[in-house]
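Checklist before submission:
- one chain only
- standard amino acids only
- sequence pasted in full

Submission:
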Amino acid sequence: MKKLLAALLSIFFAFSIVVATQNSNSSTARTDVNPTAPRKVIFRATQDQIKQAQAIIKQRGFYAGEETGALDPNTRTGLKKYQAAEGLRATGTLNKLTLQKMAIALTDKQKAM
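Returned file contents:
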């Protein structure tokens, strides 16, 4: 009786592993996405815009680093503080609204977004 119970449990365990493996290998691709549709354009700040933003957040006391034109972690932290102080969503990125609030000129491409 004990051997039969052990055998049944072993078979059940093996079956469970097979089912779990099949579920983890199943396709997770979304079927509601049109693969031929154009991708959404990502807004990107220029290096000059980043330098200007760094100067502004440094002047406001939210950033103590150099004006390098790179969105490093310290710049992102300063941007979050600036955005929160200005009532913007604190993302830590230089999005269109943040650049406009800082009165930093947008490129023609950025204006079209």
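Reviewer check: The chain has a mean pLDDT of 85.
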